[in-house]
């Protein structure tokens, strides 16, 4: 199966997928990596693995709609079976969702529907929850609201800082991502309302 991964930052989730895909039994490989900005480690990781990259910055287009159309076209060129947002910090638009909405997944560093948005671990810590984690879900038009594929939990420790909690979550998050992407591509999936079924 063909994976296109979208990144905006360090790309450690991307790296986990690149590493998993070196085993042919995994059933998927990363055929392209897209980003919304230059100069990020995620793009370097792709290049180091010999995976083609593209960059679509919102400000390089006259409107958000034009950006959405360009991103959709660039992703489509690579004929993905699954598109993965792995730390991609942009909300895609209607054209992208029309093209890939049934196969566009995102990993979020909190247990949704708690703590959506870009500061999941910080918000969880501030709230005082005792269990944190990561959520893998199909993206819809909302912010971190789509049908959930899987969740993994980790404890919040008394002496956690934002950094230590973030790292504990990310470790579990990467494992979950690799496992669930493998499962999706090998077994397929159906989405009925909010329910994701993997046969
Ligand atoms: C992940 O924890 C993801 O949940 C969040 O940003 C992080 C991306 O990390 N949205 P990386 O770029 O894969 O290292």
Automatic annotation (TrEMBL):
HAMAP family xrefs: PurN
Coiled-coil region(s): none
Annotated site, Raises pKa of active site His, chain positions: 144
Residue ranges of every copy of the Formyl transferase N-terminal domain listed in the record: 2-180
Listed name of the protein: Phosphoribosylglycinamide formyltransferase
Family to which the UniProt record says this protein belongs: Belongs to the GART family.
Entry function: Catalyzes the transfer of a formyl group from 10-formyltetrahydrofolate to 5-phospho-ribosyl-glycinamide (GAR), producing 5-phospho-ribosyl-N-formylglycinamide (FGAR) and tetrahydrofolate.
């Amino acid at each position: 199966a063909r994976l296109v991964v979208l990144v905006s930052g360090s790309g450690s989730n991307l790296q986990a997928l690149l590493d998993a895909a070196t085993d042919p039994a995994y059933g998927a490989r990363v055929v392209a990596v897209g980003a919304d900005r230059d100069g990020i480690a995620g793009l370097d990781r792709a290049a180091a693995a010999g995976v083609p990259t593209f960059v679509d910055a919102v400000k390089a287009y006259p409107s958000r709609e034009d950006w959405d159309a360009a991103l959709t076209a660039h992703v489509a060129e690579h004929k993905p079976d699954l598109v993965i947002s792995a730390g991609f910090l942009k909300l895609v638009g209607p054209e992208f969702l029309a093209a890939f909405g049934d196969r566009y997944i995102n990993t979020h560093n909190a247990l949704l529907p708690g703590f959506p948005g870009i500061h999941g671990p910080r918000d969880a810590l501030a709230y005082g929850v005792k269990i944190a984690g990561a959520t893998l879900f199909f993206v819809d038009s909302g912010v971190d609201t789509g049908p959930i594929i899987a969740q993994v939990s980790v404890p919040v420790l008394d002496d956690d800082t934002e950094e230590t909690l973030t790292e504990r979550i990310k470790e579990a998050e990467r494992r979950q991502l690799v496992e669930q992407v493998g499962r999706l591509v090998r077994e397929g999936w159906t989405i009925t309302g909010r329910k994701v079924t993997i046969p």
